[in-house]
Each structure stands twice: as structure tokens, then as C-alpha cells.
Design a protein that fits this description.
CATH class of the largest domain: Alpha Beta
Bound molecules: adenosine-5'-diphosphate, magnesium ion
Number of helices: 12
Shape: elongated
Strand content: 5-15%
CATH topology of the largest domain: Rossmann fold
Largest sheet: 5 strands, parallel
CATH superfamily of the largest domain: P-loop containing nucleotide triphosphate hydrolases
Structural class: alpha/beta
Length: 258
């Protein structure tokens, strides 16, 4: 067997599929530019690593079940002056994950709470952390079913395992006693162990109503807020703002047509 074919077979046998595939192109380039042997080897291995990393991140992103993929670069801070961009950039360094601190995003609908939560989630995935996103109502329904079927502990592990758990839209529906209790158990179990990013359009004062019980609400808040970063987003919905702008532009255009 010629050396090239042997090399390819060995790469495949070692599981370096992408390097095997890229071998010809790398050899040709190396020959043309008279690249030193060691540079050729490093380049070939880096090509393999880059493909692996992308595949790994893709898998992690799918597992995280994010509702969309938007980053902080996609976030228009000028449109949202109530958001302290320094605080958000600081959070994007992910120090809060290292310290198992929480992030609470509060504000009316459409102001970018989920966007910021997802962006921080993507940053965490990029740094190799396991992330899981769930709407609050789905989380509670899931844990409640598990509780009723006497398998709460096992089911809870899904929400305890990821380094970052994103819980979206707390307070969308009020919770009953079982719902509030299983949620408390989750928050207590993650306390000082793993970060939660939580979004809600309710202020903390409403949480007694959301959980149907001020005692449980206080116990939950106590743990969530102890090590936390709270971001209050005010202002109008970004979606409505865009619609309104589109409307203004349409008006201008129709006037010009007259
Ligand atoms: P919320 O979770 O607060 O209801 P979202 O994060 O879902 O709001 O934002 C609604 C839509 O508007 C999303 O598509 C989001 O990407 C976009 N959006 C909101 N705020 C901004 C912003 N400041 N810059 C860019 N896009 C934004
Ligand atoms: Mg949202």
C-alpha cells in the first residue's frame, strides 16, 4: 500500500475521520508552500479538532433546547437604555456560573428578557458548560407529574445536572400547592450548587400570588436572591416598537405617493 493510503487508513483507524478526509488537501498545500513537517502535522490535527469542537457545541446546543439562537451581539442596547450594558457584559464573562450565582431578569413582555437569557446560555455552551432551557409552566408540569407518579427524585436530576438552568416566564400561570412545592424543592436543591437564570414579568411583590402562598414564595425568593444579579428591564416591547416604526415608515411612504 502506498504511504498516503496507509496514512489515511491509520487516521481512520484512530477515529480521526475529518483529518483523513482533509489529508490530501493539507498535503498538497504543504508541498506547494514547502511547509515544515511539524507545521503540517499541527495544521492537520487542528482541522480535526475544529470540526470536533463545532460538532460538540452543536450537540450541546440541541440538548439545551433553547427556543432560538440569539447572542448579545444581536442585542441592541441603545434600544433598551434601562439595561446596564456593563452589567450584562460582566455576566457574559460567566463568573456567575463559577460561583453558582443566579440571574433574575424582570420586566414587561417583549423587552428582551428571554433574548438576554438565551444569549448568556449560548455563551455558557461555548465555554463548555451544560445548559438546559425550560419554560416555567413546562418545568412545573413535568415535576408535578413526576411527583404524582412517585418518581420526583429521578426526574429532578434532569434539572439539577446542567450547570446552568434557564427558567423562562415565571408567573405566566399561577401555581397550586404541589406546583409551588416542587418548584421550591428544585430551587433549594440548586442553591449554591448550580446557577439559575430566571425571567418573569412579575415583580417580587407579586410572587406571593404567583405561588399562592407567601411563605413558600418567601422561602423561594430567599434562596434565589441570596447570591444573585437582578436586571430590571423597563420600557416598551421591542416587537411593538419595531411595528410602530414600520407603521411610521409606511405612513411616510404613502404620503410621498400622494
Ligand atoms: P421578553 O422575553 O422580555 O418577553 P424577548 O426576549 O422574547 O422578550 O424579545 C422579543 C423579541 O424582540 C425577540 O425576538 C428579541 O430578540 C427581540 N428583542 C427584544 N429586545 C431587543 C433588543 N434590545 N435588541 C434586539 N432585539 C431585541
Ligand atoms: Mg420571554
Amino acid at each position: 500500500m502506498i504511504a498516503l493510503e496507509r496514512a489515511r487508513q491509520h487516521l481512520l483507524a484512530l477515529g480521526l475521520k475529518d483529518a483523513a478526509q482533509a489529508l490530501d488537501a493539507h498535503l498538497e498545500r504543504a508541498a506547494k508552500r514547502e511547509v515544515p513537517y511539524v507545521d503540517f502535522l499541527a495544521d492537520l490535527l487542528e482541522a480535526e479538532l475544529a470540526v470536533r469542537r463545532r460538532r460538540y457545541l452543536d450537540t450541546r446546543t440541541k440538548l439545551a433546547r433553547l427556543p432560538f439562537r440569539k447572542t448579545l451581539d444581536d442585542f441592541d442596547f441603545d434600544a433598551q437604555p434601562s439595561v446596564d450594558r456593563r452589567q450584562v457584559r460582566e455576566l457574559a464573562t460567566l463568573q456567575f456560573l463559577a460561583h453558582a450565582e443566579n440571574v433574575i431578569l424582570l420586566g414587561p413582555p417583549g423587552v428582551g428578557k428571554t433574548h438576554v437569557a438565551v444569549a448568556l446560555g449560548l455563551a455558557a455552551i461555548d465555554r463548555g458548560y451544560a445548559v438546559y432551557f425550560t419554560p416555567m409552566h413546562r418545568l412545573v408540569e413535568d415535576l408535578r407529574n413526576a411527583y404524582e407518579e412517585h418518581r420526583l427524585d429521578r426526574r429532578m436530576r434532569i434539572y439539577l445536572a446542567p450547570r446552568l438552568l434557564i427558567i423562562d416566564e415565571l408567573g405566566y400561570l399561577p401555581l397550586d400547592r404541589v406546583g409551588a412545592t416542587v418548584f421550591f424543592q428544585l430551587v433549594a436543591a440548586r442553591y449554591e450548587r448550580g446557577s439559575i437564570i430566571l425571567t418573569s414579568n412579575h415583580t417580587f411583590a407579586d410572587w406571593g400570588q404567583v405561588f399562592g402562598d407567601p411563605v413558600i414564595a418567601t422561602a423561594i425568593l430567599d434562596r434565589l436572591l441570596h447570591h444573585s444579579h437582578v436586571i430590571n428591564i423597563r420600557g416598551e416591547s421591542y416587537r411593538l416598537r419595531e411595528k410602530r416604526r414600520a407603521g411610521i415608515f409606511r405612513n411616510v411612504e404613502s404620503k410621498q405617493e400622494l
